[in-house]
Amino acid sequence: MKTEWRIFLTIAAFLLFAAVLYGGWTWADSDGRVEWIGTVALLLSFLLCSMCGGFFWFVSRRIDLRPEDRPDGEIADGAGEIGFFSPGSYWPFGLALAATIAGLVFWQMWLLGLGAVAVIFAACGLLFEYYSGTRRTAEH
C-alpha cells in the first residue's frame, strides 16, 4: 500500500498545480475571467486522487508490509490464494446490462429510473449470490 498512496498523492499534487496554473492562465488570457469547467474538473480530479491516496495511506499504516512494499521482498513471498472468484455467475453481465440501460438517459428519464432499479437489483443479486438459491453454502 505504500507505493499506491505515494502514486495517488503525487498525481493529486500535480493536478492541484495544474488547476492553479490553468485557472491563472485562463484568467490572464481572457481579461479577468476564469474558464471554470476545466478548473473545476482539475480540482475535482485532485480531490478524487487525494481521497484515494488518503485511503491507501490510512490502510498502509494499519497493515503489515506486503512483499511488494519491502525492499527484500521476493516474488515467491506473494504466492498463494488471492481470493475467491465465482466461476459461473451471470450477475456481472446483468449488472453491466443494467448500467448500460441507466446510461442511455439522453432524453428519457423513465429509462434512468428503470436502469437505477435494475442496477440496485443486479448489485444485490451479485452480493447475495452465495447466500440464497442453489449456491447456498451453509444451511441455517
Automatic annotation (TrEMBL):
Substrates-to-products reaction catalysed: 4 Fe(II)-[cytochrome c] + O2 + 8 H(+)(in) = 4 Fe(III)-[cytochrome c] + 2 H2O + 4 H(+)(out)
Positions of transmembrane segments: 7-25, 37-59, 90-107, 113-131
Chief place of localization: membrane
Chain coiled-coil ranges: none
First-tier enzyme category under EC: translocase
Compartmental location: Cell membrane
UniProt-listed Pfam families: Cyt_c_ox_IV (PF12270)
EC code: 7.1.1.9
Topology of this chain in the membrane: Multi-pass membrane protein
Keyword Nucleus: no
Subunit structure and binding partners: Associates with subunits I, II and III to form cytochrome c oxidase.
UniProt record similarity statement: Belongs to the cytochrome c oxidase bacterial subunit CtaF family.
Record's protein name: Cytochrome c oxidase polypeptide 4
